[in-house]
Predict the structure.
Amino acid sequence: MKFASVRLVTGDPASVDKLVYFYTRLTGVAATRPVPDFAELRIAGLVLAISTERMVQQFNAGAARAAANRSAILEFEVDDVDALHQQLGEATLDTAMPPTTMPWGNRSMLLRDPDGNVVNVFSRPMAKLQEVPHAA
């Protein structure tokens, strides 16, 4: 078995556009749009799919409800959370938690995408420090 993708279900093609813009900006990866109601971003080992609720209703009626997630967190590991936060610009983000060092050493920020899904962007600076060989 192979894990294939995570799909976010949103309201309409305009909502797909907003989510595509958010995730393209966050990841730097361009989306493919085979139809207006669907997009995919292929991000190093992950496919993030975005579709309208209309597509779900057409093929899988009642299986998902647009913008209703309150239990999953999408997580992306980056080299430098603070640099990405600065690059994206505080004023353009819906920040649930600014860059913060967690008790286990990760540097993390929580964002909300245009549909309110929580996105954790983190780095492992302590792991990088431990990888550096010490001079004898």
Observations:
- Residues 13-27 form the longest helix (15 residues).
- The chain has two domains: 1-68, 70-136.
- The longest strand covers residues 46-52.
